[in-house]
Amino acid sequence: GQNIDQPTEMTATEGAIVQINCTYQTSGFNGLFWYQQHAGEAPTFLSYNVLDGLEEKGRFSSFLSRSKGYSYLLLKELQMKDSASYLCAVINSNYQLIWGAGTKLIIKP
Amino acid sequence: TAGITQAPTSQILAAGRSMTLRCTQDMRHNAMYWYRQDLGLGLRLIHYSNTAGTTGKGEVPDGYSVSRANTDDFPLTLASAVPSQTSVYFCASSVELAPTGELFFGEGSRLTVL
């Protein structure tokens, strides 16, 4: 089967750094997405990784290791507005998008 | 900029009734998708379309139908709703079907079937 694993919930402090992990087992790999979803809202695109390594975009960075089936999203200088769910999704060899259940991130002052 | 518009925002529906969720995009994207999102589960693909006039089944298509008469509109119909179809439904689009680029989502339609 195909599976995306993420922690269900994480808590972090405003101003700190948090790393959200995602491991995947899929039939092939053609890229990995991270999306942010605030409660009651639509998911919005954060990053796309297809090659190994770190992609940095402002306070957010995304890392991919294809050999380990592993990615993480790193959020720096956390702000209260970063409280949201973070969705990991993988494109498999059939170009189907497989979604994880998401990680709910709670930011405390 | 509208992007993707869904309607209704929320709806309560009696079991056995039919319902159409509307989705319109103004980005001239070729590919459109319908997902359902349930607590504790990842987004699950119901149906998709890679261009006007063609549709395909996703992971959970039973009980749902779609049409793609033109590029902009992609309605989702529940012919005879059942309580297990209670969910939040998201319409999405991308430039092409193989989504190596960003998916754009509508704001969602919350459907409750009693």
Query: How far apart are the first and last residues' alpha carbons of chain A, in Å?
Result: 40 Å
Principal-axis shape of chain A: globular
Rg over C-alpha atoms of chain B, rounded to the nearest angstrom: 13 Å
Low-pLDDT residue spans of chain B: none
Describe the structure.
The complex is a heterodimer of chains A (109) and B (114). Chain A is 0% helix and 57% strand. With 109 residues, chain A is mainly β. In chain A, the strands form two sheets. In chain A, strands 2, 4, 5, 9, 10 and 11 form a six-stranded mixed sheet that branches. A five-stranded antiparallel sheet of chain A has the order 1-3-8-7-6, with no helix packed on it. Chain A has strands at 3-5, 9-13, 18-25, 32-37, 44-49, 53-57, 60-65, 70-75, 84-91, 97-99, 103-108. The model of chain A has no long low-confidence stretch (mean pLDDT 95). By secondary structure, chain B is mainly β. Chain B is built from no helices and eleven strands. The termini of chain B are far apart. The model of chain B has no long low-confidence stretch (mean pLDDT 94). The interface between A and B is medium-sized, with 25 and 19 residues.
Brief sketch in words of this structure:
The complex is a heterodimer of chains A (109) and B (114). Chain A has 109 residues and is an all-beta fold.
Summarize the SSE layout with pairings.
The complex is a heterodimer of chains A (about 110) and B (about 110).
Chain A: E1 3-5, E2 9-13, E3 18-25, E4 32-37, E5 44-49, E6 53-57, E7 60-65, E8 70-75, E9 84-91, E10 97-99, E11 103-108
Parallel strand pairs in A: 2-11
Antiparallel strand pairs in A: 1-3, 3-8, 4-5, 4-9, 6-7, 7-8, 9-10, 9-11
Chain B: E1 4-7, E2 10-13, E3 19-25, E4 31-37, E5 44-51, E6 54-57, E7 64-66, E8 76-78, E9 87-94, E10 104-105, E11 109-113
Question: Main attributes?
Answer:
heterodimer, A: 109 residues, mainly beta, 5-stranded antiparallel beta sheet, globular, B: 114 residues, 7-stranded mixed beta sheet, 4-stranded antiparallel beta sheet
